[in-house]
Amino acid sequence: MDFLLLIVLLLVLFVPYILMMRKQSAARKTVEFFQASLTPGARVVTAGGFHATVVAVRETELDVEIAPGVTATVERTAVIRPKSDAAVSTPAADTTASEDYPPLNEDGHDAQGDAQGGAQR
């Protein structure tokens, strides 16, 4: 009886651990494959949150352009994912600024005189 309880307890503890390790291993392999396949011109996101374009590829480092004319050297492992352009918001598509907030005049106040369009405190 005690032996059966021990086996059930071990299964309850180790089965979730093994399943999590498999998922984490698959995710790590996907990132490693992505990092190994980087080429100049690829748009990426670094671990620091920079959205950049790969300019040059070396064995362990990449030169990335983070702004026009601004190039930085990062470790290949610092690139965590490709940049998806679907999440980028354009001013023409973003209508929340004009609908939810009153327009500001040239000194940064709205029609009621609140600074930056916020409520008075």
TrEMBL record:
<keyword id="KW-0812">Transmembrane</keyword>
<protein>
    <submittedName>
        <fullName>Preprotein translocase subunit YajC</fullName>
    </submittedName>
</protein>
<keyword id="KW-1133">Transmembrane helix</keyword>
<keyword id="KW-0813">Transport</keyword>
<dbReference type="InterPro" id="IPR003849">
    <property type="entry name" value="Preprotein_translocase_YajC"/>
</dbReference>
<feature type="region of interest" description="Disordered">
    <location>
        <begin position="83"/>
        <end position="121"/>
    </location>
</feature>
<dbReference type="GO" id="GO:0015031">
    <property type="term" value="P:protein transport"/>
</dbReference>
<keyword id="KW-1003">Cell membrane</keyword>
<keyword id="KW-0472">Membrane</keyword>
<keyword id="KW-0653">Protein transport</keyword>
<dbReference type="Pfam" id="PF02699">
    <property type="entry name" value="YajC"/>
</dbReference>
<dbReference type="GO" id="GO:0005886">
    <property type="term" value="C:plasma membrane"/>
</dbReference>
<comment type="similarity">
    <text>Belongs to the YajC family.</text>
</comment>
<keyword id="KW-0811">Translocation</keyword>
